[in-house]
Fold this sequence. Notes:
With 157 residues, this protein is of the alpha/beta class. The protein has helices spanning 5-26, 44-51, 96-101, 125-136, and strands at residues 34-38, 55-59, 70-72, 86-90, 108-111, 139-143, 147-151.
Amino acid sequence: MGFGYAELRKVHRRQLKEMARAIKKRFPSSEFPRVADVAGGDGRLTSLLIKEGYRVTIIDPAGCKVKGSRVLKRKFLVRDAQDYDLLVGFYPCQASQKLLRAAKYKPVVFHPCKCRHHWPGGRDPRIEAQAFMKKQGVTYERDGSFIFHAWPNGFLT
Ligand SMILES: C[S@@+](CC[C@H](N)C(=O)[O-])C[C@H]1O[C@@H](n2cnc3c(N)ncnc32)[C@H](O)[C@@H]1O
């Protein structure tokens, strides 16, 4: 039996809720109010974060405006990091490497997508993402099986 679109949406919904919870726990809106949802797409993660009190900007050439958010319809640039307290990305696809480069400047919470071709070594993206972060010299930790938190060395204790 195949894994259909409805099942995939269900898995994503669960993963998105798990990610919103992880963000809230580690990076509360009182300390990290300005969030960039990198490759935010139709704003599913953004909607959850707005409910938790964050001010969210979606940065995505195909981004959709959701109530209470701002949208920048363009590609994410590493220098965008300066305008936010926290950067998040759920399945950020082509923006993955830039998002992790930005972890040298601001904390990043991300859930890698499954596309191997977005990473240099072509292995499992979870492995590639960790190798990439080590190379960048940022501190990172895993949260559950898929979510990673990364931040500039010395930023958090
Ligand atoms: C798999 S979708 C993820 C969407 C959303 N995070 C979600 O899960 O609902 C990947 C998104 O990456 C966006 N994207 C591709 N290249 C990008 C870039 N360089 N900067 C920002 N967003 C990009 C696409 O437009 C698309 O919306």
